[in-house]
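Example A, followed by Example B.
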Amino acid sequence: MAIRLNGLRTALPVGLALAGLLLAWEAAVRLFGVPAFVLPGPSGILVTIAEKSNILSAGLLVTLTEVAGGFAIGTFIGVALAIVLVLVPPLELMAIPLVIAINSVPSVAFVPLVLLWFGLGMASKIALAAFAVAIVVLLNTLQGLKRPESEAINLLRSFGASRFGILFRLRLPAAMPFLVTGLRVGLARSTIVVIVAEMMGGYGGLGQVIYQATAMMDSLTVWAGVVVASMASLGLYGLLVALDRKLVWWR
């Protein structure tokens, strides 16, 4: 009950602030007579979402499939590589400089290359999302796996724990908060790179809806696509918050 009350106290100010912002936006558009192609009001965007729900829902399904597929693959690769690097320290010394160098380049910079390698279908978007997620999950999980102090590790060794025993009993629980942080950052990065990739070349998705609407100077549809993408991202973020509470329940 206390958790629900705390959640309500947190959500209520955010909801009121958002409602106030939307009302001020609508009032300003109507008061100053701003044309829809410059900045449509929230009411016009909502009407467009309702009118083009079929197109937007189809695009949303494609985008979510690509993001979810890449997110799952990237998470698995990132965690697996982090475990390997912790268990084999010489590999970490060789791999981490390369990983950091790759991470310093924005994921969207690789979009043209991946489109050439994997084509314009869903495979290229899933690959880009997996890449964006794997790098950040790897770095965060590796940091968490190395978090336990040497005294705690030596204590487990004195009781006969193997490297895998220490990994599962000490390192992985300590890495959970870092892993969840990496998942949150990776989700945002994967969503961005998928939508950008859809805009640069694709057969469907919200990015392609936004691109086609831009080509036709349809400002309302562009805004509708952006709003739907934002709402979907918030929904996915909410799932990660719930996952955080399950995996890192002791915080």
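Example B, a separate protein, is given below in the same form.
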Amino acid sequence: MKLLFKKVIKRATIFRIREIIEGYHSLAVFEGRYYVTLKDGRIAGCVSLVERGWYMTEIKHLFVKEEYRASGVGRFLLEEALKKVFTPLVCCTVRSDNKRSADLFLKNSFDIMGTFQNSMTDREIFLMVRNLQQKE
């Protein structure tokens, strides 16, 4: 099965992505460029990139539908998204109890730069950053 990575353009796809994300994060703020991964013509996951300035891009809403988890879709999404980043730094936030996501970012050279409490959900959050100019 081949995975495809596509920029979201169709209005219907945008609404479907919004439904998927709101299903796990009802307070989500939608911004940036959204990309989807298709597996057998169906949405398997999505990711958004938001340029915060000349120096940093934020990865938001990296999400893999449950039936595609643990199959490499998350890794594929992250690797393809990183190819679209042209700033020296890239960051994301991950709930500390989301071990699968935190491990994915750690395995891809992100560092936990700090933790904080999300005041809306009272959950602990990791701020993760990767310097794309650093040699691995």
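On Example B: The CA atoms of residues 65 and 131 lie 28 Å apart.
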